[in-house]
């Protein structure tokens, strides 16, 4: 069990991560998203050592007309607690927070979170096309006619940070360079060849100031995470990783309602998660952050309190985000290099748990300066165009 120094937890029962797994990832042409869900779920259950009958809660989003009912049926599950929250990339941290609260309160005992997508394969096969906008209904109808695409929203926010704080393109490029360096030792990463700042800056322009390598990759893949009540811990195949605290927040839909382009909702979700976990940002050993674009990593580091507002550019320099850096970030290579099949938030939790368990492998395992395994990790997902955020603090027992 974690020591009292790790801080208080809400609810009556402690909540542990029992199992995590990836499905096949990267280029997966001959399968369906349902099959990736099933593959990841089976692997996570095997990782936990528990029987499928233990699962009484299920959370899924992004697939099926009646998500998560269709996916649960495909997996042969009949849960009595469900969640289909869909808030973009932060969905999975928000779902993890909901599931942890439900388990703590006794409304569920073992909740499976699962995701799978063949976004890349579908486009290659012509089964779908790329979307420039989330839609043209509701408040979004006032932006869509002006060509205000998803990536343009992030680009505008990045330009504001550059104008207000002097952040440079070279500093933003460092995020991509270090993500690719972290991916180099990850056999599951889609892109592992090193890149330089010049490579990032000289690439084709996508939305000023973002060139291609400032943007996440498009891949196929899935993953699953099983959360359980502390009662299950004696039956687990591996030592538990504990959910110490979580926080969620939403900000805006239309850019005109965003108070400050340089502040994301992670400023609120992170503060809540750290307070509820009873830890400080300075105590965190590694961070898994949503990185659809390089600016997202930079501003989330600021908003979680790893550096002051406006100092993100300087913070990401000098290799601080590398596996052996001052604050290892996106140790699998992140969405910029490893895997990004659509909503990447659940992958953040999988990587954080593997690092805390010491399962990342000799070439990419994070260790403290004294050689010990990391004790605390944070996973923070972002949805939409900084519209929503979920942050989860995890601790090794």
UniProtKB/TrEMBL annotation:
GO molecular function annotations of the record: acyltransferase activity, transferring groups other than amino-acyl groups
Keywords: Transferase
Residues in Thiolase C-terminal domain copies: 247-396
Protein name (database record): Acetyl-CoA acetyltransferase
Pfam families: Thiolase_C_1
Origin species: Streptomyces piniterrae
SUPFAM superfamilies, alphabetized: Thiolase-like (SSF53901)
InterPro entries registered for this protein in UniProt: Thiolase, Thiolase-like, Thiolase_C_2
């Amino acid at each position: 069990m974690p020591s009292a120094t790790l801080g208080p937890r809400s609810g009556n029962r402690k909540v542990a991560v029992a199992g995590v797994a990836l499905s096949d990832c990267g280029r997966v042409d001959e399968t369906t998203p349902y099959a990736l869900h099933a593959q990841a779920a089976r692997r996570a259950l095997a990782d936990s050592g528990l029987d499928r009958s233990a699962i009484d809660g299920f959370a899924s989003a992004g697939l099926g007309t009646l998500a998560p009912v269709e996916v649960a049926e495909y997996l042969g599950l009949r849960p009595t607690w469900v969640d289909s929250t869909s808030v973009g990339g932060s969905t999975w941290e928000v779902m993890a927070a909901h599931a942890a609260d439900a388990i703590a309160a006794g409304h569920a005992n073992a909740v499976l979170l699962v995701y799978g997508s063949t976004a890349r394969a579908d486009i290659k096969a012509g089964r779908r096309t790329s979307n420039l906008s989330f839609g043209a209904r509701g408040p979004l109808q006032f932006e869509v006619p002006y060509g205000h695409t998803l990536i343009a929203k992030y680009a505008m926010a990045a330009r504001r940070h550059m104008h207000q704080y002097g952040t440079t393109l070279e500093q933003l490029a460092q995020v991509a360079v270090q993500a690719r360096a972290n991916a180099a030792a990850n056999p599951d990463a889609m892109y592992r060849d090193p890149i330089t700042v010049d490579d990032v800056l000289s690439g084709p322009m996508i939305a000023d100031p973002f060139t291609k390598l400032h943007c996440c990759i498009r891949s196929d893949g899935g993953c699953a995470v099983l959360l359980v009540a502390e009662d299950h811990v004696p039956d687990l195949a591996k030592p538990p990783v504990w959910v110490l605290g979580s926080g969620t927040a939403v900000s805006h839909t239309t850019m005109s309602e965003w108070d400050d382009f340089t502040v994301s909702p992670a400023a609120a979700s992170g503060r809540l998660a750290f307070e509820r976990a009873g830890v400080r940002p300075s105590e965190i050993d590694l961070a898994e952050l949503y990185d659809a674009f390089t600016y997202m990593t930079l501003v989330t580091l600021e908003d979680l309190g790893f550096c002051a507002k406006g100092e993100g550019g300087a913070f990401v320099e000098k290799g601080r985000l590398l596996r052996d850096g001052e604050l290892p970030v996106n140790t699998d290579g992140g969405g910029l290099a490893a895997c990004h099949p659509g909503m990447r938030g659940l992958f953040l939790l999988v990587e954080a748990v593997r690092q805390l368990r010491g399962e990342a492998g000799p070439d990419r395992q994070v260790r403290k300066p004294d050689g010990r395994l990391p004790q605390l990790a944070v996973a923070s997902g972002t949805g939409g165009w900084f519209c929503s955020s979920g942050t989860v603090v995890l601790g090794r027992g």
